[in-house]
Amino acid sequence: MSVEALGSAASVGDYLQLLKPRVMSLVVFTAFVGLTLAPGTVHPWVAAVAILCILIGAGAAGALNMWYDADIDALMARTALRPVPRGRVKPGEALAFGLFLAGTSVFMLGTLVNWMAAGLLAFTIFFYVAIYTMWLKRRTVQNIVIGGAAGAFPPMIGWTAVTGSLDLASLTLFLVIFVWTPPHFWALSLYRTGDYARAGVPMLPVVAGTEETRRQILIYSVVMLPVSVLPAVAGVAGSLYAGSAILLSGLFLVLAHAVWRDSDGRLANRAAKRLFGYSLFYLFALFLMLLVERGLSIAPFAPVRGFLS
Amino acid sequence: MTGKNDRPGSTPTREEQERRRRGRSIAIALALAAMAALFFITTIVRLGGNVAERAF
Predict the structure, then answer these.
(1) A295 in contact with B at a CB cutoff of 8 Å?
(2) Cα A8 to Cα A90: distance, rounded to the nearest angstrom
């Protein structure tokens, strides 16, 4: 048999790389927190199945993103070694793999857990692939502001896996991630501006300049402070979370202020890198506090009157 | 899980290709078996005691 007749040159590891494992880990963690905080009970096995389906769904979205973005991934140092631009996985293989996983994850979540959660998972994959990757990413400077919604849905899907309904309380978890996403990516893009410019992706520093990006990061960091406390206002979290959220968001604001202040040379790069690193810790710590609070049986605050009705 | 000749654009040897195909085949078989087990166990878990208690 000739080498060509053997078909794909991809190894199992290449296919696993298509799933964006690092993004998956954050998705699974936030989905798990949503599932834990939701009112009601679900069998631990069914909960594990729900998390698995969300994991596969997130991987599917990653694979479809890598299929569509292979041309620009090849131009950026951070993404040039991904399996498709590297020639290890053919575009058609990545597309088929992504579509199959997307269909399987939604079908499994629907039949084994509930269809409301499955619908939300399907919408999330659609949003990430069609709305963010295909439509917004290359066209508007607001790409990650709107596209960030895709990364914010997982805790809502986890929540809905338990309740079977869309609740306003779970929307507060969505908002925490939604508002966090722009400053997180803009901090990264500040010291990767050349990459994005080469690929023609209209990230904020490329289009509006680094000065404006620093200002926007600071504005979003100010907004994050009240938004991070919303889960406590909605009766999802209690005092330990609220205190931690204020502290963590306060430190975020301090680091964002440093990014805004230090606009030149090495100091500016260092400030942006520090904020990016901290932003990853920030989101993890915030959701971890929600879990810790549940683990310690610290009661959530009563929802503020009128917030949920 | 990278092969020996894994520079961008290079064609892997026939042995390497066969090794990777075998790896993919095993992964697909394991995934299918896991999926069947998952559906079976979840069905049992969700039915719970309802099978024994159902009215005839």
Answers:
(1) no
(2) 8
Residue A301, pLDDT score: 82
Q: Quick one: pLDDT at residue A178?
A: 97
Could you tell me if B49 lies within 8 Å of chain A, comparing CB atoms? no
Question: For the CA atoms of chain B, what is the radius of gyration?
Answer: 21
Q: Identify the CA nearest to A159 among candidates A289, A295, A36, A298.
A: A36
Does the complex come out with an ipTM higher than 0.85? no
Question: What integer is the mean pLDDT of B30-55?
Answer: 86
CB atoms within 10 A of CB A6: 15
Below-50 pLDDT ranges, chain A? 1, 3, 309
For B11, the closest of A3, A11, A112 (CB atoms) is: A3
Task: Tell me what the mean pLDDT of segment B10-21 comes to.
Answer: 85
Q: DSSP 3-state helix, strand, coil percentages of chain A (rounded to 5)? A: 75, 0, 25
Q: B40 at the A interface (CB within 8 A)?
A: no
Please tell me if residue A296 touches chain B, with a CB cutoff of 8 Å: no
Which of the residues A2, A4, A11, A82 would you substitute to probe the B interface, choosing the one with the greatest number of B C-beta atoms within 10 Å?
A11
